[in-house]
Structure formats: structure tokens, C-alpha cells
Amino acid sequence: MPFTLYNAPQSTCSQRVRFVLNAKQLPFDEKKLDLLAGDQLEPGYLALNPNGVVPTLDHDGEIVTDSSVIIEYLDEIVPEPQGFTPKAPVARAKMRALMRFIDEMPAAAVRVPTFNLAFLPRFAAMSEEEFLAFADSKPLRKEFMLAMGRKGFPEQEMNAALERMRRTYERMDAEIAATGGPWLMGKHITLADVAVMPALVRMADLSLDAMWKEMPRIVRWYDEIRAHPAFKPTYYFGSLLTERFAHLRPKPGQA
Question: pLDDT value at position 33?
């Protein structure tokens, strides 16, 4: 059952899939793409994934795209040794509804601080013509790139993104309170937890995690997900932005 995963170490969507593969102890050949170098826009990759984004899973010649789809696919075809999907239809529906919320809210919102704080120096160094050509080459992210521009998203957009993240933490807190936790749906981790995990890891990596520090249920959830056996192999060195971009690291003498 050979698996090949085309992904990028720092890609939050890629991290979802690596987590599930690692949790299920599934060996996979990892093809690492450099997104800033445009590897995802090469003709060979676009032939696999016309959206020009990561990740893409090649399962014995069958191609599966979109991280939410991939993790559901993996959980369906390899339910053991750890399953992430509830057996009861109503619970499965609730999990999928949470996943839709996650893709609509935090997964999208976290891109704004990511690009403004981590990637902007790369784009600012481009000429306007180079930047427009780079944006135009992205099948799925063209409008996002053009909205950001070479100077980054304005303060209003940053604040709106952080507000969407705040509402995410509140939704997570309410779900955990209702189910008794420690996970979003109760005693067992589900794909909803896996789906939201990279957004919170990214916010912590960008030193923007203060909003949930006063929310004990979220703190416990974050500790639980980081203690999961699949977490460490998923976040190998180079998976965090601070491990790649020196300008994000605290200066000597800073806390």
C-alpha cells in the first residue's frame, strides 16, 4: 500500500496529513516542495494537482488532493491502529460540520498573519512586475496574493484575521465544555482536532497565542495534541516558520 506525499514542511495543510499518516504508522515517501521557490507551480506537479497547492497524496497511483479530503480518505481506508472518525452517523456529521467551520475560519484566517509576518520580506524584495507575475501564476491563491500586495495586508485585515482566530478559540472552548473534553468531541481525538491543530501551532510559532492562554480548556487541548505520539514526527525540524526564517526568532535579550 505505497503512499507518496507531496507536501511542504511549513504548510499547515501538509501538517494535517503528516499527522494522520504518522498516527496510523503508515510508511510514506515524502516529496518536499519549496513553495517560495514555486515548486508547486512546476508543470509536473500541476499535472498531479491543478490547484497548484499542497498537499497531494499519491496512493499506489491514485491521486487524492485537498488536506481535509486526504485525511478523511486515509481514515476510511486504514481505520487502524488509530481511527479519527466517530462510528455513529450523527457524530460523524457533527465532526464534518466542525471541519467545515475550521476550513472556513482558522485555516483561512491564519494565512494573513503568516504572510504578513513570515513571507512578506520575500515579496517586498521583488519588483512590482515580478510580484504580479508570481501572483498570476497561482491557480488558487492569485486573488489572495494580489490583496496582500508587496506591502502586506493592512492593519484592518490583520485585525479581522485575529478576530476570526479569537472566535475559533471560543468555538473550540464551547465544544470542549459541552462534550467534557479533552478533545473537541469528548474523550476521543477526531479529524476535527487534527484539522484545527496546525492553525494553533502556527499562531504559537508566530507568538500570537496569548488569546487562548486564559482559556484552560484550550491550554489543555493544546498540551494533549502536542503530547500525541504523532505530533513530534509530524513537526520535524524545519516545520516551524521560526526554524526557517531568522527574522521571526527572538533577538538576544528578548523574552
Answer: 97
Q: Encode pLDDT of 94-110 as tens digits.
A: 999 999 999 999 999 99
Rounded to an integer, what distance in angstroms lies between the CA atom of residue 225 and that of residue 237?
18
CATH architecture of 89-236: Up-down Bundle (1.20)
Please give the grid coordinates belonging to residue 175. Answer: 465544544
d(CA 199, CA 166) in angstroms, rounded, equals: 12
**Across-strand partners of 183?**
186
Q: What is the DSSP string of 44-85?
A: HHHHH-TT--S-EEEETTEEEESHHHHHHHHHHH---S---S
All structural domains of the chain with their residue ranges: 3-77, 89-236
- For the chain, how many residues are written? 255
Residue 235 predicted with pLDDT over 70: yes
Say how far residue 86 (Cα) sits from the centre of its chain.
Answer: 22
Nearest to 198 by CA among 254, 240, 143: 240
Tell me the pLDDT tens digit for each residue of 243-254: 998 888 876 655
At the top level of CATH, the class of 3-77 is alpha beta
pLDDT of residue 1: 64
Q: How far apart are CA 108 and CA 181, in angstroms?
A: 25
